[in-house]
Amino acid sequence: MLAFERRDLLTSAAALAAAATATFAGSHSAHAGDPSFMNNVPDPLLAGKELPTFKFALEKSSGKAIGDSFGKEATVEQLPISKGIAGVSMRLEPGAMRELHWHATAAEWAFVLDGRVRTTVIDPRGYAETNDFDPGDIWYFPRGHGHMLECLGDKPCHFILIFDNGYFSEFGTFSITDWLGHTPKALLAKNFGLPESAFDGFPKDEVYFARGKAPPAQPAKPLQGWKPPPQTHKYRLLAQPPHRVFKGGREWRVDSTRFEISKTIAGVILDLEPGALRELHWHPTADEWHYLIDGNISVTMFGSHGRYRVETLEKGDVGYIPQGYGHSIENVAAKPCRVLIGFNTGVYETIDLSQWIAGNPTDVLATNFGQPAALFEKFPKRDAFIAAKEGPEKAG
Prior knowledge:
The structure is a single chain. By secondary structure, the chain is an alpha+beta fold. The chain has six helices and 27 strands. It has helices at residues 2-29, 176-181, 185-192, 353-358, 362-369, 373-376; strands spanning 55-56, 64-66, 69-74, 86-92, 96-102, 108-114, 116-122, 128-133, 138-141, 146-152, 157-163, 174-175, 209-211, 234-235, 244-246, 249-254, 266-272, 277-282, 288-294, 296-302, 308-314, 318-321, 326-331, 337-343, 351-352, 386-387, 393-395.
């Protein structure tokens, strides 16, 4: 009897320890952008005999619309595989503003597709910055920093937001009208040193998209005056020369080595000519998130033990590749395509299949594949990166 009780006690202790470990790991997984924890805990969704879908038709979803402004999101709710990254497609009509808000669980990285956008942001040290953005520009706001997004000019603007946490929801952020609207007027009056009547006309609920007059051509100074941050939140990605140019395409790349404040998210714009292939590769330290700006692409994903899946993405679709999973991107249309790619890491890293093979002696390759060593002399002697019908890299 005593032996049974002792064995039962040990079993219970082991179960409690396992539960505590899982809880601890789960709590760590909420801290976005830290590659030390990613994929440390097995994901049941990725442990099956078949790989799950990694595609979602973002622009075909309904999202949240107010007037001619909308926000459409892709989180784990819409795309369960995307635990490390979430994305939002947002359109603002002229005079519209995504009101003052902050994100408690994720940093925000954005790429402007169309129109012009003005942002303001404040950090915990009291530094404030206002910036105007054109198509091809990006911004980055660290987690928890208060900000707003505003359409500039008389044309709508459209931008894609990337967040370093797949459990983030754009519709669960902390908005200033929601906060003030649910705080007693007596407390607001005491907080700001104003009479309670000063808050009579304030919204009672979250506004989300505020509308008013078109903003001035030049931004006005904030109430406290200018106190610019030591690191800017703006980077002109497409105004820079491409990072790499190939016969079959080109790539713009930005991470914290070029855009210092962007510590948890890196981004790429990839152009591929018809038939061109971003070769088989993987990312050791980050998940990968796609938004197809234009064209049609075929994306493959390899998940070990014979598991392989292919998805075709159309304009406005998003895709997701978990950290360390092998994949490729191929333009399967008759016209060029453009892909926005986000990574939940501050420093971009990749290992390409051609690069890996080229880094091994021919005798090793011959033994591994059971083929003549002479065959591997015909393989690329360096990283191919983009494979086209013909032609190597043109410029670095």
